[in-house]
Design brief:
Oligomer: single chain
Number of helices: 9
Distance between the termini: 62 Å
Order of helices and strands: HHHHHHHHH
Strand content: under 5%
Shape: elongated
Helix content: over 70%
Radius of gyration: 20 Å
Largest sheet: none
């Protein structure tokens, strides 16, 4: 039993070393300019050891998922005040993720491309979708906004609009985060135009 535990711990340590090396190189050189050989050299392991941890795209997805999870933990602590406006407050909920995509624009573009291309999937991204839809539903319930689509349908529409807009925006570096958030406010207001109070 101890041998298995020691091997497992050694594998986990090596994996963390590979991920840390990939993170440093992606940040310094960019995703496209970094090779698996570079990561192996930086981590002081073999190329095979890097590939056992994942190909370059899988490493990026895992790293970016970690960044998204950090932002989600912050978003989970947000408290709604008594004056809820579903569209504006929904934008405030996703703003930390928009800021992340702005801060790491090149990596965000590669991440979005990998997910859209279906080359790798993201458990964190799928979990985030469920969590955001639930928060959007809470906002609309607190706001008193339901309408013919109901809160679930509108929450899903907000999420779909957000993800589609986010991925398109990540591929247009000439647009700032503040411009994107302003556009997102308009899109969200079109989906949920209610400003609070009873429907």
């Amino acid at each position: 039993m101890e041998v298995v535990t020691a091997r497992t711990e050694a594998r986990q340590t090596t994996r963390r070393t590979v991920l840390q090396a990939a993170a440093r190189l992606f940040e310094e050189r960019g995703f496209l300019a970094t090779t698996v050989r570079d990561i192996a050299r930086e981590a002081e392991v073999s190329v095979g050891t890097v590939m056992a941890a994942g190909d370059k795209e899988a490493l990026l997805v895992e790293l970016f998922d970690g960044l998204i999870e950090e932002r989600q933990q912050l978003a989970d602590t947000q408290v709604l005040d008594g004056n809820v406006c579903c569209g504006a407050d929904a934008v405030a909920v996703v703003e930390p993720f928009v800021v992340l995509f702005e801060e790491r624009r090149d990596l965000a573009q590669a991440y979005a491309s990998i997910l859209v291309g279906g080359r790798h999937s993201s458990v964190v991204f799928a979990d985030l979708a469920r969590r955001l839809i639930a928060v959007f539903e809470q906002l609309m319930t607190a706001c008193g906004c339901s309408g013919p689509m109901g809160t679930r349908g509108r929450a899903e529409a907000l999420h779909a609009a957000y993800i589609g807009s986010l991925f398109i925006w990540s591929a247009t570096p000439e647009r700032s985060a503040s411009e994107f958030l302003a556009q997102l406010r308009e899109v969200f207001a079109a989906i949920c135009p209610h400003e609070g109070g009873d429907s």
